[in-house]
Task: structure prediction
Amino acid sequence: MFFNALPGLQNDLKHVSSEMEKLLPSEWNQGRVGEVVQAVLAGRGKGYRPSLLLLMARIGPNYSACKERLYRLGALVEFVHMASLIHDDIIDDSVLRRGKPTIQARFGKETAVFSGDLILGQVMSILLKDGMRESGILIAGTVQDMCRGEITQSDCRYRSEVSQEEYYANIYGKTASMFVTVCKIGGLESGCSEEMIEKLGEIGLHLGYLFQIRDDLLDFLPKNEEDGKPVRMDFREGVLTLPVIYTLEKAEFRPEMEELIKSAKEDNLSKEQLDRLDQLILKADGFKRTVEAAERHRSRIKELLSELPKGKEVKAISHLISLLSLPVFS
Result:
């Protein structure tokens, strides 16, 4: 697992998890709110974002002196991520996440909306109470980016003329912005120079792009039970990712691709049409070009890492990057 990348990181994540428990008011443990909050906590992920924050913080000179503050910030960014997933599941009407019922499936959409908002409200409250102004500004900016990304992605749905630039703007808001923020917070809180903080942020940017492009590619592969998401769901919902965009750019494939997009919008895509979608993307080298795009981001991350002080932290970050393997299509 990725948290084994560096000795002590797994233990640090236990502290982050403990902070998550502490940061929720005791009065939230009762009644319906208590049920919902416990369900939210049970749905926490692997801690990729807090791990990045803690890894980047280890590069700074003041890491040892600010561990407790870092654990708290790791908990807060994980809460923001979890709240965004709750809202995503409402929009997508998802019944499963990581093989478990979503908050909206268990408690209804209204309760799910308020649950996500409740968590975000607590995050902002703690940032203000603890005087985490600079990190708070970064987190608030990311929440704004997330919302903008979802709005612009919605505007792009089923649009066959969607551009690569629009795609990248959407995934910056949805994914990359949070990666930039956690990397910057790690450097900021541990006393890194402004130049170093910007460099760490750029690593986060390309890591966020790599992470999302990989996820978009995985959407074309058969899912296992843990994902709870049918294959090609992005296309069905009109979210046109890089493999589709690259294919649409080739004139000989565009008319048939537009017909498939039209069928998706009308919610009557057949299995044969979905299979045809894969065939067209393969013929147009859409998968190949998407993998190449992802690898360009990986290469840039490696370049940036080579500019950081040599040490076990950089090796650990490199290990995390290596775990993001890309699927093969043939």
